Amino acid sequence: MKKTKKIEKVEARAYHYDTIVSPVITEKSTAVSEFNKVMFNVRLESTKADIKSAVEALFNVKVAKVRTLIRQNKKTAYVKLKSEFAAGDLATKLGLM
Fold first, then answer.
1. What is the dihedral of CA 84, 85, 88, 93, to 10 degrees?
2. Nearest to 58 by CA among 97, 7, 22
3. Distance from the CA of 42 to the CA of which of 6, 26, 50, 70 falls in 20 to 30 A?
4. Strand partners, 79
5. Stated pTM of the model
6. Are 83 and 56 in contact (CB under 8 A)?
7. Contact status, residue 63 vs residue 55, Cβ threshold 8 Å
8. Quick check: 81 and 64 in contact, CB under 8 A?
9. Distance CA 81, CA 73 (A)
10. Helix, strand, coil abundance in the chain, percent, nearest 5
11. Cα-flanking dihedrals φ and ψ of residue 76, to 5°?
């Protein structure tokens, strides 16, 4: 049985929501937004490529670089946006500012 394009898009979107757990809301995350970066808590199994595609698909931005940090069995991603997109705008859209 063939899947329709709409079902494939819904499944891909659900996968992106599974990758990103939540945005990080701290003083540090606000400080890094000045450098056009946004912080997210992500699943421990997520790769940098998964995180990049999820952020680009969910928030309609372009990602320049992804850095990850694993501490206390939790994974945090620092996502740097390309210069034509502002991290402050994305933070406002997420309700962080």
1. 150
2. 22
3. 6
4. 38, 66
5. 0.82
6. no
7. yes
8. yes
9. 26
10. 45, 30, 25
11. -120, 135
State how far the alpha carbon of 93 is from the alpha carbons of 9, 23, 50, 72, 83, in Å.
22, 11, 21, 29, 18
Q: Which amino acid is at 91?
A: A
pLDDT in tens, the chain (97 residues): 455 555 555 555 666 778 999 999 889 988 898 999 999 999 999 999 999 999 999 999 999 999 999 999 999 999 999 999 998 888 888 776 6
Query: In terms of Cα–Cα distance, which of 82, 27, 30, 35 is closest to 59?
Result: 82
Cα–Cα nearest to 59, from 97, 86, 24, 30: 86
